[in-house]
Amino acid sequence: MSNHQPNHNNFTSKIGLILATAGSAVGLGNIWRFPVLAGQNGGAAFLILYIFCVILIGLPLMVGEFIIGRHAQSNTAYAFSKLTNHKIFKNIGRFGVFTGWFILCYYIVVSAWALDYLVDAILGRFGKLSEAGNAQVYADYFHDFITNPYLPVIYTIIFILLSHLIIIRGVKKGIEKFAKFLMPLLFIIMLILVVFSIFTEGAQEGLTFLFKPDFTKITFSTILTAMGQAFFSMSIAMGCLCTFASYFTKEANLINTAFKVGVIDTLVAVMSGIIIFPAVFSAHFAVNSGASLAFIALPNVFQQAFSHLPTVSYIISILFYFLLVLATLTSVISLHEVPTAFLAEHYKISRTKATSIVTATVCFFGTICSLSNGVLSDITISGKNIFDLFDYVSGQIFLPIGGLLIAVFVGWSMDKDIIRNQLTNFGTIPGKGATTIIYLLKYVIPVITLLIFLSGLNIIKL
Ligand code: PHE
User: Within the chain, how many helices (H) and strands (E) appear?
Assistant: First the structure.
């Protein structure tokens, strides 16, 4: 690690680097997307499959990105070009930076919805909606909000500015310090919600659904869904892990860190299931109510599940949306950091300037994504509005391609000594599991990521 860039930062503590990386991983993917997918794909059977994907695909790719980032000690784009002269591989890093920025432009829109719902929960609006006595009012409420020309845009801009204020403070005083504070807070709120959930009327049914596997629900497409979810949830192939690893201390054990982040990320997804399913069952909702679960079904579910205790409904709604805001904020910070680090190092500009450029561009494209649910909804490409297009292109195209290239690069092209040195910290730790990880990166992951990619594009039907 002699090539440490003079102005390149580091996390200061082991716990700080683990929490910051876990902060990137834990987000909408865990709290919003995982329960929806589990609900649609047979609950426990999906959970088991998902855990396999995390172990066999997610963890090795995470370790792969860690190796590249910590060895290169620079932003993602530069990290790859430093390691190879190969034309395609040289550009994986730039591709990762672009993917991070691209995802941020639409991820921020959903984060903004969470922020708005937190404000609504605090103002007691969901309690008022429940007085109407039917579920449709929640759907109308959500629809009116996301198609409103101003409100979602204002919340989008507030959210990105929030992340801006943290990022601008740097790696130690910004990202690490906030992760150390926000992640434990997130965990405490989750624990409170889990306890509440276990005591709701539908707890038994909800927990059985989540923990008793029904393997008849598993098809090949379920397997691909679980893999895609592992990618998204673990922040793989978006430049984040590589950028964060460049801030790791030289003592950090890469395999162990990836394992811990993977465990935290999966635990949060399971806890979200424990929070959501009992309430959904007790309010007699369909468990597969789709992506609208967090914003249409849940506000209603929280009112119904504790209908005799309105104060409990009120508090649970606030806690849940606060949780969602915290989780997305730490993910947004990590996505914001990827292009910021690139601009600052590549163009040798100050961190403040780099952060501001990213903030400005995300404000612009985030606004367009947000408006595409309302006033700009007429602009569509192959039937998708701009927001859905960002989601589709990043999830089905950029992520699997990125994952494939990273696996092939680390497995086949990278200098074996660099890999060994990074995994054993230059021979000072045993680096257990290294051989298996390399094997998975070399043979298993390229095949699987290619399948996800081809089936996502409907080129093959599985
Ligand atoms: N992993 C995050 C989630 O689960 C999403 C994310 C992707 C965050 C990439 C940062 C980078 O919501």
Answer: 24, 2
Rounded Cα–Cα distance for residues 223 and 458 (Å): 16
Of 21, 24, 97, the residue with max ligand 1 atoms within 8 A of its CB, to mutate for a pocket test, comes to: 24
Q: Any residues with Cβ below 6 Å from ligand 1, and which?
A: 24-25, 27-30, 103, 232-233, 235, 238, 240, 331, 334-335
Among candidate residues 266, 245, 238, 240, the one with its CA nearest the CA of residue 26: 266
CB 100 within 8 A of CB 272: no
Tell me the CA–centroid distance for residue 264 and ligand 1, in Å: 14
Q: Enter the tokens of residue 29.
A: 């993917």
Phi, psi torsion values for 255, nearest 5 degrees: -65, -45
Q: d(Cα 100, Cα 333) in Å, to the nearest integer?
A: 11
From the CA of 54, how far away is ligand 1's center (Å)? 14
Interval between CA 220 and ligand 1 midpoint (Å): 24
Report which protein residue has its CA nearest ligand 1's atom 8: 331
Q: How far is CA 249 from each of CA 4, 25, 336, rounded to the nearest angstrom?
A: 11, 19, 21
Rounded CA gap, 400 and 231, in Å? Answer: 8
Q: Among the atoms of ligand 1, which is closest to the Cα of residue 328?
A: 12
DSSP state string for 6-34? TT------HHHHHHHHHHHHSSHIIIIIH
- In this structure, what token pair is assigned to residue 222? 């379920």
> Given its phi and psi angles, is residue 13 left (phi above 0), alpha (psi -120 to 50 degrees) or beta?
beta
| Gap between the Cα atoms of 283 and 126, Å rounded | 15
pLDDT digits (tens, 9 = 90+) for 210-232: 888 888 888 887 888 898 899 99
What is the best residue among 233, 244, 261 to mutate for testing ligand 1's pocket, by most ligand atoms within 8 Å of CB?
Answer: 233
Nearest CA to 241 among 164, 167, 337?
337
Ligand 1 centroid–CA 328 distance in Å is 8
Which stretches does DSSP call E strand in 163-263?
none
Answer with the residue of higher pLDDT: 68 or 8: 68
Q: Which of 232, 334, 399 to mutate to test the pocket of ligand 1 (most atoms within 8 A of CB)?
A: 232
| 314 C-beta neighbours (distance < 10 Å), count | 18
Q: What is the pLDDT of residues 414-433, one digit of tens each?
A: 999 999 999 999 999 998 88
Predicted structure pTM score: 0.91
Topology, domain 14-456: Hydantoin permease (1.10.4160)
7 CA distance to ligand 1 middle (Å): 27
